[in-house]
Amino acid sequence: MMCFATSPEIGRIATTLDDGRAPLAPGRSRTVGISGCGKLCAVACCTLVASKIDESHACKLDSVIVDTGLRRRGLASALVSTLFVDSLSEPNLPISSIYAHSVHPATEKLLGGFSFRKGRAIGAPISSFQVDPVSRDRLLARCQDRLRGISARLRLGCVYCLKGDKRARPWCMPARH
Fold first, then answer.
1. DSSP state of 56
2. In what order do the strands lie in the sheet with 29-36?
3. How far apart (Å, rounded) are the C-alpha atoms in residues 166 and 4?
4. Which pTM does this prediction carry?
5. Is the C-alpha dihedral spanning 143, 88, 101, 130 positive or negative?
6. pLDDT confidence tier of residue 169, bands split at 50, 70 and 90
7. Which of 53, 49, 56, 52 is nearest to 25 (CA)?
8. How confident is the model at residue 9 (pLDDT cuts 50, 70, 90)?
9. Contact assessment for residue 65 and residue 43, using Cβ atoms and an 8 Å cutoff
10. How far is Cα 138 from Cα 123, in angstroms, rounded to an integer?
11. Can you tell me the distance from the alpha carbon of 93 to that of 15, in angstroms, rounded to the nearest whole number?
12. 39-50/11-12 β-pairing
């Protein structure tokens, strides 16, 4: 039995990994996740699509799913940064554009922080980023900076938690109200 992610804003979240979808060629889909205290906390995936015109590829951010109780902790930003760094750093994979259907408000906000162009108000809102050598380097630097900051904060939280330190704020546990 499959358990699908849902969002109060948009309902069921479909991904390239759903049953019934055609399998992608090896290396054309990338999935990353973050686990804490033995449980999966967040996952993101992207699909790489070859251009029919030239040798370039488009990178479609497919889904970003964060456990409801763990949102607003930087997990989505860390995963998306990882996907972008991983994809843009591959030497034999020239990427000319990155895009996402930004129907979820958090996705649109996240991508805006990476300097993506906002989607149109009508039709399917698609946020996009055109990749050239300068914009590629800027996006890579932005992603690497975010990743360093978020990773350091999460690791420190784990160290405090494992030591039983009073400063521990477990990021992998839902906040208690």
1. -
2. 29-36, 39-50, 57-66, 95-101, 126-130
3. 36
4. 0.83
5. positive
6. confident
7. 49
8. low
9. yes
10. 29
11. 22
12. unpaired
Alpha helices in the chain (DSSP H): 75-88, 105-112, 133-163
Residue 27 in 3-state DSSP?
Answer: coil
Do residues 136 and 93 make contact, with C-beta atoms less than 8 angstroms apart?
no
CA distances from 101 to 14, 74, 130, 171 (A): 11, 20, 15, 28
The single-letter code of the amino acid at 12 is: R
Neighbouring residues of 177: CB distance < 8 A, sequence distance ≥ 6? none
Are 7 and 15 in contact by the 8 Å Cβ rule? The answer is: no
- Six token digits for residue 54: 């030239």
Span 18-77, pLDDT tens digits: 555 555 555 588 899 999 988 999 999 999 988 888 888 999 998 898 998 899 999 999
Q: Which residues of 27-46 are buried (b: 16+ CB within 10 A; e: fewer)?
A: eebbebebebeeeebbbbbb
* Domain boundaries, given as residue ranges, for the chain: 26-163
Task: Give the integer Cα–Cα distance in Å for 3 and 124.
Answer: 25
The contacts of residue 6 (CB under 8 Å, 6+ apart) are: 12, 13
Q: Which CATH architecture has domain 26-163?
A: 3-Layer(aba) Sandwich (3.40)
